Amino acid sequence: MSIVIRKKGFTAGIKLNENKKSAASPIQLLKTPERVIIPLQQHTGAECEPLVKRGDSVFEGQLIGDSNKLISARIHASIGGVVSGILKIVNPVNSAIISAVEITSQKAGKEGEQPYSGLQKQDGKPYNAGIIPENVVDLIDKIPREKLLETIKNSGIVGLGGATFPAHVKLNPPAGIKIDTLIINGCECEPYITSDHRLMLEYGFEMLCGIYIISRILEPQNILIAIEDNKEDAIINIENLIGALGFENTFKIVSLPSRYPMGAEKTLIYNLLKRKVSTGALPLDVGVVVNNVGTAKAIFDAVIKNRPLIERIITVTGDIERPVNLFVRIGTLLGDILESIKVPDNKTLKLIFGGPMTGFSVSNMDFPVTKGVNCILIKEVKKPLENNCIRCSRCVAVCPMNLMPLVYASYVKNNKYEDCREYYIDSCIECGSCAYVCPASIPLMGYIKTGKSVLARKS
Amino acid sequence: MLWAILILTGIGIVCGVLILIVNRLLPKEPASLKRAEQVNENLPGMNCGACGYPGCFAYAQALSKDNKVFFSNTCATVLQDETMLSGIEQVLDLKVDKSALNRKAVVACSGNCENVGTYTGVATCETASKILGGFKRCPYSCLGLGDCIETCPENAIHLDIDSNIVVIDPDKCTGCGLCVKECPRNVIKLVPANSNIVFLCNYQDLRDIPGREKCDSGCIKCRKCVKACPTEAVTWNRDKSIPEFDFEKCNDCKACIEACPQKILIELKNVSKKVKV
Q1: Which of A4, A80, A190, B274 has a CA that sits 20 to 30 A from residue B226's CA?
Q2: What is the pTM of this model?
Q3: Domain count, chain A
């Protein structure tokens, strides 16, 4: 029996131009930067307290930020060096001003003091081979469940799909809730981004072992790896690896039609299991945990290689000559990444962190890459002229959550925020499909975000 | 025809008798409601909601139950009007110290901040401030898109085109605090109406925030105001890196205003003049 299930049919959502220009470009290692800025809140939840002072010398992988709150993730130094200052930075997710640790590496002297063993590279490439597959599975089987969760917590792992929810909280459901299905999200439905695609091709082994670790913790009955059908090579690669590792009986690959927003958590659960997650509820409440493929790999790195989350794969793409996928240290400044990229200088381009549908634009080069950034998009953007709503209801047709975005726009314009709540504005997953299809170029996403933030602030 | 007249008259008489009976039987209007109505006569009746109650009558009901509410949720419009204030004092049996409660809203930003990019989104401060700390150089500055202008019941707020921020006219402002709640960046502060010092900067860090510098007209954190003060009324807040003023200790000597090299410490009555120049 084939382990690949092919699903068809997804009514809402849109078919976008994929523009996956960097799909064939292998992951390259960006040279370690000399200066990093590591924000102390890169996750959903409470901000961490800095554990280092100005002038302290830190080693690679050292814990530099921790919080005693339940929903929070630890922060580690991504390069060795000296803390040159605790400064403030704008948090891109909620625009709050948060603390950040600036580390400058000093080549001479202090670097050799406490080398971090987990990060040794082989031939300049990240550690990939060396452990025989059977050994890894045995190794994982020997570690008790509590130890696994503890390691994940200590390594500061968050969901790498973009929502950055702390992984140890997600993988430790409250007593009484039984998780029957684990979904591994490899859809990558947004245009341009290819970091998860390359990860499945090049780090499939790590990823599958990471999924095995998650399944040890949660003990689900079904493990589904969801991949869109435009990544056929990844499906074949993962299928072969599952065979090689001997996971045929538990792991299933689901090939889904490539439509946006297939990879959003709630739509993915509905398409795979026909279960609906109600407003304000979590996937836990319907017995499902969804994890990104990147998170699975990070969990493998933490448990087997004892390596905290200090680097991630990002795609640098858009209207540039040579789009690439890069292995980047957390906290690397945007300017350092763009140094190696040839950007045409005769055009005004927009810099976007994240994909074209849900990303946010960045206006300065001194901005660091955080745990949640999966793509840097350099793109020419035309300013659309906002017209009046003609009530064509295209936004209603495409909304994957079956909402009425046009209503929110008119209510927010007239300051009727409470009425937005009656139309379930909190259910919106902010995928941006409505603003994309709007023939009057109404920035519906902007209005919805405004309404949500006003409601959150005033109540 | 005759029947119709008779039936309708009959129904009228029966209903009238019923109303009379019900009116006699049902309890009379409670005394507290009567008192609330008396209070309500001395309220402005604008239903602006600045006191925290859904309307003037709801506020009057709360006041009639407990007159301490007036100090916790003060109606700013009443404070401005002598006849309304004396009426309230009479009905509620209160003694109101007007100068202690009277406040004015001030935009703690001196403007002239450059933009770091072109903002093309929805033209409200709420949305703009959510996109990577806004489009201005300073992440604490007034964005000047005017969310507060619409909320002001007194039309005291206007946009200053030269400095690209909003300015509140202290003569018109009643200190109701609606704009303070509206501002997504907390730039608007309430200060005592008789205060002689207003600090027009909101930048709360000693160092430059990466990519977001202090503006040229903002506070340079020289702390001259702290040193100049003879009565120790000015203290330095280390967490926020801004001076704080204790108006109890202040003796109106204006030494700090003269000491400020950036001229962002000014008197309240000069607020609208300073920014326009």
Answers
A1: B274
A2: 0.83
A3: 3
